[in-house]
Amino acid sequence: MGSFKYIQDNERQLFKNKALKRELLLTVEKEPLVMRIERPTRLTRAKMLGYKAKQGYIVVRMRVAKGSFRRPRPIHARKPSKTGLYFNLSISKKKMAEMRAKKVFKNMDVLGSYFIVENGQYKWFEVLMRASNLTN
Hints:
By secondary structure, this protein is an alpha+beta fold. The chain has helices at residues 3-16, 18-29, 43-48, 93-104, and strands spanning 34-37, 57-65, 69-70, 86-87, 108-118, 122-131. Strand 5 and strand 6 form a beta hairpin.
């Protein structure tokens, strides 16, 4: 078995441990909406998506709100009969995190993303990005 397989087994055990997952959640909850981090939390998943530990590659931790999209209710005199408030968007939370990361880091290309942890209100994803001018 190669070293990559050992790292993968170790990560799997860590994410099954509820105490360690809770500790990660407590640290992530204190962070802002967009947070650039030094290294990926799940190294094996990042490597599968094309991450390399070298200059030009970054990891961004994104927070996305859970639940459906809420549309503002009209506050004028009329009350439309078809005033829908909650809608399910056609894009996933993961894709939403990637799009928001791309909006913040304009000079980077998105390699991929993966789920980290969630609570009742938010989901956190790590988005892998690389500089646009890098070729392979």
